[in-house]
Design goal:
The protein is α/β, with parallel strands linked by helices. It contains 36 helices and 25 strands. It is globular and about 95 Å long.
Length: about 1000
């Protein structure tokens, strides 16, 4: 029985300094070796700089259109989106928008390469035709109405295709094999990569599987008779084979994806091909290795040395992955191929770790540390020959030279380069070392699928710190390119980037970021699940308060107001910060409570806990500034003028059930920080969460006299709103109830008190033809269906340009079909229940109506109980949706590109103004929409839920609320009154300071 290693496990985001301390001593070589590396790298760099390629490559494009220029960025966006735009009008707008952002007209080409000159010529010609100011209303104007527009469109599309043809080996595997056929007896190794975004639907996954299977057969037939490793290969993406490649869906992934991967591997084995599983994002690493390990264990793959995987050196766990792969190879007595890359999605990994509030980053924040780790991983891989066949993917001359020196004369490895890149380097390498093999990683696919790939390669290699960009810049001396990564780091304490704060310090020094949990880290997720499961939650019914008890609470709060309002702002802030600390320490308890009383999934419960924590810290930080010291105002000599803010009195906080912890604490802590005493009235469906939250605040230092809880239904809320002694109301809920509260306040005699209301909305998203369908599908599904659609910000109405509507709607429906509905305590659940039977009945009635009046695109299946499955309906007109539908129901309306103004009018007619999503690559379109609509939160090319405290202050206009925005810099002031104190300091004999002053 083989000694199978346990599932892969390693620290997800270890400290950079600790890793540097381990790696720095291990990579130094002797002076003779370092000298040989310098000589080899210098020769390769000089070859890159001397090359005069009549066609040109990425290096030439980067030299011509640097990404630090407007032209480079415009070119990147054009390349990413133009070829997927089907209609002429949108294409013309897009071309005009991007060419107007750069100075292509006056761009003088420095390169002799045909690729560069042809692209520059086409873009310059187009820019000359489309002059700024000559294209009224953001469309192609009279100047190019007949002949100009088609010419511009054709020239620019051809420029994009020209670049694409150079970076992609073929649109089909047959074309790619024809181009890859050896010339003049030369032998070249290829690994073919089928281009495309990850699967969003089961149909996508099946299509990708069929494409891989067909490609394996075609490659195998043309592979010849050479043995491995001198045979072609194919790269497969796990995310292309399964639409929910995520840690929480592990059981489903293992059951469905492993057989698929095994099937493809068995086909590759038949032809003795190199079969490489591509790397995924850091949060998918453990799951990917589980899939690989289960596949590799199948006895049918025994005797085949072609199975392999890619490992990313920018991931801190790369060395641990190599150890694990070696253990698998030993256990199954196999030889494996390992492609070592540096990694291409660094910026995304940094952003995700910051958004998730992790303790650190899963990737290195300095490029020099990635390069250092690459060398360390190369050493390890080379030491594992021949059981491991290393494949070093790099265009960095220093990395190539270093690997050559480390490898010695034993062979048993190869280099890899991307098709269209690194030609000069590897041509020189082949001349100097004809015995060293290199493989070309060759993308295969349509121009449409090329887009994201091309832009990522340009971004990856066009950054100022990239070797490819620097090697192409003659101003950078060769000696600078020879600097060793260890010499750039020097000491372990310099391993982390000084300008990239740790995720927890993202908002420092003002406050800490809330702490999250990485679900892709098995140890962290298992620990959280165990702790949540162990929590005992008392869900005994809580008795509603009587009107007399509500009145008594207001009286007690009024009595406690004076002492609390005189409590120093620093003391009040410290209590809120202590509350944040307690929330994080008791995270499992509150997550369990949110799941069992609020019906939250694990992901939603954790997000809500973090939001509540952020509210506490943000309002504490804001309160210190606003209420800490009086503000000295300007004025004449002999007089002091100071402006102070102070509490209003008793604030009533009425919160909803959909965010029973975050909104509840947000309202209460804001009112408390401003110096008010508070009577909090939570939603009748979720009183237990409020009871525990108030208990925590009291423990944190908020006096019982300053904070009172009153539970009950809407009648208790109405009684509190009508009380004559309250100083203000903060409310989140329906527009109907907000109007009722507003009328009650207006009807009262006595002081005029503020109402801070955040209500709902018919929230919309607009997606035009330049939007990436996969990104639209991701963001629509998240925005419309997460939290069972029970968010104020949730997407209700999608406007999609008719030219791309069929494909987008199909993809959205397919992605919705993959969502799991059920018990929120099951980690794999994406959609939990709606809040109660009454809510379900309302939603079921709306679904029944829509089935009669609209076109049904998708209807999910829900289990018994308070569950409502996602539905997608297409409306003939936006006016059919007359009110907010608070659940997982998406309404879609098609629009023609020339009728965008009608779309905006339809949005305005709803009267709501809470959230809006825009998916477009046309900046002019985005700016025009933003300028046109009165909507509180607008999200561009992302989902439209999950506003982050202090980052995206949340609140709407019109029927969606009064403002100011919760979690924003103007919120606390609305809870306070202002007081100006003017003192005549000259009253007692004159201004002594002025009289005593020197000239």
């Amino acid at each position: 029985m083989p000694n199978i290693p346990p599932p892969f496990s390693a620290a997800y985001a270890p400290d950079d300094a600790d890793i540097a301390a381990r790696l720095l001593p291990s990579v130094h070589l002797g002076p003779p070796q370092e000298a040989r590396i310098d000589r080899t790298a210098t020769r390769l760099i000089e070859a890159i700089r001397k090359r005069d390629d009549r066609l040109g490559g990425v290096e030439d494009m980067l030299r011509e259109f640097a990404l630090s220029t407007k032209e480079g960025l415009a070119l990147m966006v054009l390349a990413e989106a133009l070829l997927r735009v089907p209609d002429a009008r949108t294409a013309d707008q897009f071309i005009e928008d991007k060419l107007g952002e750069g100075d292509f007209i006056h761009h003088e080409t420095k390169s002799t390469a045909f690729l560069v000159n042809a692209s520059a010529w086409a873009l310059g010609l187009s820019a000359r035709v489309i002059q700024p100011g000559e294209t009224p209303d953001g469309t192609i104007g009279r100047l190019v109405k007949r002949l100009g527009a088609p010419a511009v469109r054709t020239a620019t599309r051809q420029a994009m295709r020209l670049m694409g043809n150079h970076f992609v080996l073929g649109e089909t595997i047959a074309q790619a094999l024809e181009r890859a056929r050896p010339r003049s007896g030369e032998r070249q190794r290829y690994s073919f990569d089928m281009l495309g975004e990850g699967a969003r639907t089961a149909t996508d996954a099946r299509r990708y599987f069929d494409a891989y299977a067909s490609a394996i057969l075609t490659i195998g037939k043309a592979a010849g008779s050479h043995p491995l490793p001198d045979r072609p290969g194919i790269s497969v993406k796990l995310s292309a084979l399964h639409p929910r490649l995520e840690a929480i869906s592990r059981d489903g992934v293992m059951a469905e994806l492993v057989p698929q991967l095994l099937d493809l591997a068995q086909r590759a084995k038949v032809h003795d091909l190199n079969f490489t599983v591509d790397a995924e994002e850091a949060d998918r690493l453990e799951l990917s290795l589980d899939v690989i390990a289960a596949t590799l264990a199948d006895p049918s793959l025994a005797g085949w040395d072609g199975f392999g995987l890619a490992i990313q050196a920018y991931q801190k766990r790369a060395g641990d992955v190599i150890d694990y792969v070696d253990a698998l190879a030993r256990a199954h007595d196999r030889k494996l191929m390992v492609r070592l890359v540096k990694g291409a999605y660094w910026d995304t990994e940094i952003k995700r770790a910051q958004e998730r509030g992790l303790d650190g980053y899963p990737v290195f924040t300095r490029k020099a540390m990635t390069d250092l780790n690459y060398v360390a991983c190369a050493q390890k891989l080379l030491s594992l020959r021949p059981r491991i066949f290393p494949q070093f993917a790099t265009h960095n001359a220093l990395s190539v030279a270093t690997v050559l020196e480390l490898a010695g004369a034993n062979g048993g490895f190869e280099f890899q380069r991307l098709h269209g890149m690194g030609e000069a380097l590897y041509e020189q390498l082949a001349k100097d070392h004809p015995d060293i093999a290199y493989r070309t990683y060759a993308p295969v696919g349509s121009h449409r699928d090329l887009l994201a790939y091309l832009v990522r390669r340009l971004l990856e290699n066009g950054a100022n710190s990239s070797f490819v960009a620097q090697a192409s810049d003659y101003r950078v001396p060769v000696t600078a390119l020879l600097q060793r990564p260890a010499d750039a780091i020097v000491r372990p304490q310099h391993a982390a980037h000084p300008k990239i704060p740790l995720p927890g310090d993202l908002f420092a020094p003002e406050r800490r970021n809330s702490r999250g949990v990485e679900f892709g880290a098995r140890a962290a997720l298992d620990r959280l699940l165990t702790e949540v499961k162990a929590e005992t939650i008392d869900l005994k019914p809580i008795a509603d308060a009587t009107p007399d008890q509500a009145n008594a609470a207001v009286a007690a709060a009024r009595a406690g107001f004076a002492a609390w309002s005189r409590t120093p702002a620093a003391t009040r802030a410290a209590a809120l910060e202590q509350a944040a600390h307690l929330l994080e320490n008791r995270a499992p308890h509150f997550i369990a409570l949110l799941q069992r009383e609020g019906g939250k999934t694990l992901d939603d419960a954790l997000s809500e806990l973090r939001e509540a924590t952020d509210f506490c810290r943000y309002y504490a930080a804001q309160g210190r500034k606003l209420f800490g010291n009086d503000v000295a105002m300007p004025g004449p000599t002999g007089e002091s003028n100071a402006l102070a803010m102070r509490g209003r009195g008793v604030f009533v906080a009425i919160s909803p059930w959909n965010f029973p912890l975050a909104i509840f604490l947000g309202q209460v802590t804001a009112a408390l920080m401003a110096g008010n005493s508070v009577v909090a009235k939570p939603a009748e469906q979720t009183p237990r969460i409020a009871v525990e939250a108030v208990r925590l605040l009291h423990e944190a230092g908020i006096p019982a006299s300053a904070l009172h809880l009153v539970t009950g239904d809407g009648r208790i809320g109405a009684a509190l709103a009508a009380h004559p002694d309250i100083g203000g109301i903060v409310f989140t809920g329906s527009t109907e109830v907000a109007r009722s509260i507003n009328r009650a306040l207006a009807a009262k005699d006595g002081p005029i008190v503020p109402l801070i209301a955040e209500t709902g909305g018919i929230n919309t998203m607009i997606a035009d033809a330049t939007a990436l369908p996969e990104q639209v599908a991701d963001d629509v599904v998240t925005s419309a269906f997460r939290s069972a659609g029970q968010r104020c910000s949730a997407l209700r109405l999608l406007f999609v340009q008719e030219d791309v509507a069929d494909r987008m709607i199909e993809m959205i429906a397919g992605a919705a079909r993959e969502l799991k509905i059920g018990d929120p305590s099951d980690v794999a659940t994406h959609i939990g229940p709606v809040i109660d039977v009454e809510a379900k009945q309302r939603l079921d009635a709306h679904i029944a109506r829509m089935k009669r009046e609209a076109r049904l695109h998708f209807a999910g299946t829900a289990p018994e109980g308070c569950f409502v499955a996602p539905h997608i309906f297409e409306l003939g007109d936006a006016g059919q949706l007359t009110e907010e539908v608070f659940g997982p129901i998406l309404h879609v309306v098609r629009y023609r590109a020339e009728n965008l103004e009608r779309v905006l009018q339809a949005i305005e007619r709803t009267g709501y103004g809470l959230t809006l999503g825009i998916h477009s690559r046309i900046d002019d379109t985005i700016e025009a929409i933003v300028d046109r609509v009165q909507i509180g939160n607008i999200y561009v090319n992302r989902n439209m839920i999950g506003a982050v405290v202090g980052v995206q202050p949340f609140g709407g206009n019109g029927l969606s609320g009064t403002g100011p925005k919760a979690g924003g810099p103007h919120y606390l002031a609305r809870f306070a009154t202002e007081q100006t104190v003017t003192i005549n300091t000259a009253a007692a004999g004159g201004n002594a300071a002025l009289l005593a002053g020197d000239e």
